[in-house]
Design a protein that fits this description.
Belongs to the NmrA-type oxidoreductase family. This is Nucleotide-diphosphate-sugar epimerase. By secondary structure, this protein is an alpha/beta fold. The chain has a domain of 180 residues: Rossmann fold. It is built from eleven helices and eleven strands. Strand 1, helix 1 and strand 2 form a beta-alpha-beta unit. It is globular and about 55 Å long. The model has no long low-confidence stretch (mean pLDDT 96).
Length: 295
């Protein structure tokens, strides 16, 4: 069969980056989305389906050879399990050559009270048990979160980098573009089948260290301010809803007690996946920060 790739959430931040990267390298990419009215990434064909609809997912996977699955901002355990079971069944029926599951978060070794981790852990278990050749990638926190209306203006206009992590929390900040390259490598490397890989960016940095990287590029002093997680959750709720915000905030609540959670070893990521990761300063320099300047 001619390779055909299915990417869930292809109009979102992570799925979009993955879909764009694969399409730019000559791959036939189908984007599985809930809202087909959103603009499609260049070279990507959109297909409307809800992961909770077993028949629609089965139809979407027909004729697909490779898939990349990222669960949307949904943290109800039953709903996420339904998504995972529908994907596993459809992928097995389609006899996929490779499925890459992006958990969208690092996972603690032990069970936690946070749905952000436990729903993804349960989904990972279902997909790995499907019999489909699978690679699981567990990323930390995305640099792209900072190029947003919530952070960009404060960085550019006030020299403040505010984020809901302790100042001494080491983080292997990863860009969406590097995620896409890691996913592409996982789709193509038979030696990775069956593996679960904690991945991250090129630099493991604390908040103040990341602030210094921003200062180097922006040419002004930048101060790191650790946000209160509850305040962060309240602000996020206005954008994505209370349930999704509570799910996301769980990662940061737990990170305060687990210093190693988000600090994946860059050398291990590069060695296992054969990808050169982008240094934080290089990523910062490539963004159009003037977009967020006042006036």
């Amino acid at each position: 069969m001619t390779p055909r790739y299915l990417i869930t959430g292809a109009t979102g931040a992570q799925g979009g980056a993955i879909a764009r990267y694969l399409a730019a390298h000559g791959t036939e990419v189908i984007g599985l989305v809930r809202d087909p009215e959103k603009p499609a990434p260049t070279g990507v064909t959109l297909l409307a389906a809800d992961l909770g609809d077993a028949d629609a997912v089965q139809e979407a996977f027909t004729g697909i050879t490779h898939a990349v699955v990222t669960i949307p901002l949904e943290y109800d355990p039953d709903t996420v399990l339904t998504y995972a079971r529908n994907v596993a069944t459809a992928a097995r029926t389609a006899r996929l050559r490779r499925l890459v599951f992006n958990t969208n978060t690092a996972l603690p070794e032990t069970t936690t009270p946070y749905a952000a981790f436990e729903t993804r852990r349960a989904a990972e278990d279902v997909i790995r048990a499907s019999g489909v050749p699978t690679v699981v990638l567990r990323p930390p926190v995305y640099l792209d979160n900072l190029f947003s209306p919530w952070h960009g203006p404060d960085l550019v206009d006030h020299g403040v980098l505010a984020y809901p992590l302790r100042a001494d929390q080491p983080v292997a900040w990863l860009s969406h573009d590097d995620l896409a390259r890691l996913v592409a490598a996982a789709l193509d490397n038979d030696a990775l089948v069956g593996r679960v890989l904690d991945v991250g960016g090129a630099d493991v940095l604390t908040g103040p260290e990341l602030a210094r990287a921003f200062a180097q590029v922006l040419g002004r002093d930048v101060t790191y301010v650790p946000l209160d997680v509850r305040r962060f959750e309240d602000g996020l709720a206005r954008a994505v809803g209370a349930a999704a915000a509570a799910g996301v905030a769980g990662v940061y609540h737990h990170a305060h007690t687990d210093p190693a959670l988000l600090a994946a070893d860059p050398a291990h990521t590069e060695r296992e996946l054969g990808v050169r990761l982008t240094p934080a300063v290089e990523w910062i320099r490539a963004q159009s920060w003037e977009h967020w300047a006042a006036g």
